[in-house]
């Protein structure tokens, strides 16, 4: 995906919290569920480095508990990420859904905001439940993107 970004305007909306897209070189990434590498203190709300978090779960400055800024079940989503995701889908000519069961809501509900003229390609080893017309590519993502 990062290689495609060299020639195409690509925005990646990911459920992954591991920053692998950014580490691969992608620059327009929306981490829909947050990042393990963005940490903060729950007591004073100050950002804390992931390195500090790996040393201790307690914030040196106030003693509060540090946690990664990721969305856990039943927690609210970052409104900025929702807005950016919707805008990206509204503008997309092609929507490529990759490597997901596509069952986690509200992420799976984002598809309703896509440009109605956009093509949907699903790259997945298993079919997903999707009412919109789409093309299923039944192969591993790394094979598909290498061939592309």
Describe the protein in words.
The chain is 20% helix and 24% strand. The protein is of the alpha/beta class and 148 residues long. The strands form 3 sheets. Strands 4-3-5 form a 3-stranded antiparallel β-sheet. The termini are close together. The model has no long low-confidence stretch (mean pLDDT 94).
Helix-strand blueprint:
Elements: E1 12-14, H1 20-23, E2 29-31, E3 34-41, E4 47-49, H2 50-55, E5 66-70, H3 79-91, E6 94-98, E7 119-123, E8 135-137, H4 141-147
Parallel strand pairs: 1-2, 6-7, 7-8
Antiparallel strand pairs: 3-4, 3-5
Offer a few descriptive terms.
3-stranded parallel β-sheet, 8 strands, 20% helix, elongated
In short:
With 148 residues, the protein is an alpha/beta fold. The chain has helices at 20-23, 50-55, 79-91, 141-147; strands at 12-14, 29-31, 34-41, 47-49, 66-70, 94-98, 119-123, 135-137. The strands form three sheets. Strands 4-3-5 form a three-stranded antiparallel sheet.
